[in-house]
Write a structure and sequence with these properties.
- The chain has about 220 residues and is mainly alpha-helical.
- It contains 13 helices and three strands; from the N terminus they run αβββαααααααααααα.
- Strands 1-2-3 form a three-stranded antiparallel sheet.
- Helix 3 runs antiparallel to helix 4.
- The chain is elongated.
- It starts with a helix and ends with a helix.
Amino acid sequence: MAARSWLAGRGVRSAGDGWVSDGQPGVPLTANQVAHSWAAGVFAEDLDRAGQLTLAFGLLDLLDDYWVTCEIGSAHRGEDGPLPADVLWDGYRQRLEAERDAEAVTHSLWVDWFEDRATAATAFAEVLGDDVERVVSEPTAPRLRRARRVLEHSGPVPWTVKEPAYRTAARLPALHPALFRALLASHRDVHGDVAPAPALALLDRLDLPAGTPHLADLRRTFARS
């Protein structure tokens, strides 16, 4: 079932740059308002859990709104969860590899999966850790997009979980800028996690442009910690 058709069945349709509902046809709605009002209903559909999740990802593609990922997370953690892991993480990986903006997905990873110590290790493994060797040895544009996006938002992931993937990523110069931002976020994020000595050793392996902002300060911080 296509997400647009599913919304139409509930009296919601696109209108110009926004949305309208049959209930209030003269009132324009934003994608965020549509997500808040209707996204949860996906998981009440008469579909199996994989079908519901596929529909939810379609709604995410259509609305491009972070709240849809919140409803996915709620369904995963709810009394009828967990959702099918293969469909869940394949959905995240596909959108991390896509050319289109992935802010809703990366924000979801960062604040809902990586900041939660109960889910960080599994989430990081699924979106990068388990296949980082392949990303490095057989790089493609989609895989590199995914790796960069995950690395740049991986600050809260426990250091012991992400360090092996960081070390592997360091073998590919194309990932060095993203890996630098990963180390910076690991230090600066409120929930960031880093071990200064190995982080400094990793930082020294990166081939970065002279004058890279924050590089000297980060190196000094790691060196004196």
